[in-house]
């Protein structure tokens, strides 16, 4: 991570650091108005979108040294997702004194956020295409592979895998059982893990 992108290097803003947020701590809720954006120093945070029927979808994950919540703040909209801590976290809240002045006074950082935004859009488009054109079986395998390789210290559940790849929990369980029988998933592990 480039040093100019660290929160302490930013100008025209106030920073507030948290000591520690435990698993399942709520950072913000879907529908709230954004006042700040966040930098994750340590831990893992999930963004969840709730449908009218109450079903949640795991939209995106953030790990240490990533920013989140900035799209909503700079677009002057309400949060479209709920942010919740998945692994104990330390977070810095960044409150720009003025959004326009903040972006103008931190040009390298603004470019950094645009790059992160572009990468997240790419990921979202890729996942949307997978949901539309790939079978559940392929989506579950890709989700398990992606989640366990990129976040190996987190104990992924069938429900979280299902939320991440856009299927029902029962479907993720059924497919995972098939994968264990085929030797693709490790039977000896309590948590989901692809065999090496």
From TrEMBL:
Gene Ontology MF term list: DNA-binding transcription factor activity
* CDD domains named among the record's database cross-references: CAP_ED
Q: What sequence ranges are listed for the domain Cyclic nucleotide-binding?
A: 17-120
Q: Which domain of life is it from?
A: Bacteria
One family from Pfam that matches here is: cNMP_binding
Fetch the InterPro entries from UniProt.
cNMP-bd_dom, cNMP-bd_dom_sf, Env_Response_Regulators, RmlC-like_jellyroll, WH_DNA-bd_sf
Q: Which GO terms describe its cellular component?
A: cytosol
Listed name of the protein: cAMP-binding protein
The top of its lineage is: Bacteria, Pseudomonadati, Pseudomonadota, Gammaproteobacteria, Pasteurellales
